Amino acid sequence: MGNRKYLIGTGLILLAVVYLAVTATSSSAQYYLTVDELLARKTEMVGRQVRLSGAVIGDTIQYDPENLVVRFTIAHVPGDLDEVEKQGGLAKVLAEAVRDPNRSRIVVEYHGPKPDLLKNEAQAIVTGTLGEDGVFYADELLLKCPTRYEAAEPVNQP
User: Fold this and answer.
1) Which residues does 135 contact at the CB level (< 8 Å), separation at least 6?
2) Which of the 8 DSSP states describes residue 153?
């Protein structure tokens, strides 16, 4: 009889732990999308928390220092790392994305100080929501400048 109570109690505790793990995971789930994917699913993604990546188009960067608002446009880059490597590496992919006027693009708005790495051809990884107006409102902004992290070319010595 005592053994049965122990098993029932253990089972209830395990069920509670599984329930808490599932609800915590589903409530904080985020979609990670490319610009093409987000725009293809635009109506269903409005208002949902999304992580998005793209190439910063430098001449679109606007900064309002009084209100700490940064607006810029990002262009689509592939989300598959193998595809990026096949196309010549991240620096080349970002440069081509910025120069190609036919690439999908989206305007990003971020509230906060303008980051130093917000430059032409930087990779922007933004987390936020797509507004009904088509603007992506970023809560978090991470920038990667691939030329800073590439290995230096070896110098040929005679």
Assistant:
1) 106, 107, 108, 109
2) P
How do residues 124-156 score in pLDDT, each as one tens digit? Answer: 999 999 999 999 999 999 998 766 545 444 444
Distance, CA of 41 to CA of 53 (rounded, Å): 15
Which of the 8 DSSP states describes residue 48? S
Instruction: Name the token pair of 19.
Output: 């329930």
* Residue 6 maps to a domain: no
Whole-angstrom distance, CA of residue 119 vs CA of residue 59: 9
- Provide the residue range defining the domain that includes 87: 31-148
pLDDT digits (tens, 9 = 90+) for 45-61: 898 999 999 999 999 99
Element (H, E) at 125: strand 123-130
Residue 110 phi, psi (nearest 5): -130, 135
Burial of 93 (0-12, 13-18, 19+ CB in 10 A): buried
The domain that contains 71 carries what CATH number?
Answer: 2.40.50.140
Look at residue 13 and tell me if it is in a domain: no
Q: For 20-32, what is the mean pLDDT?
A: 58
Could you tell me if residue 158 is inside a domain?
no
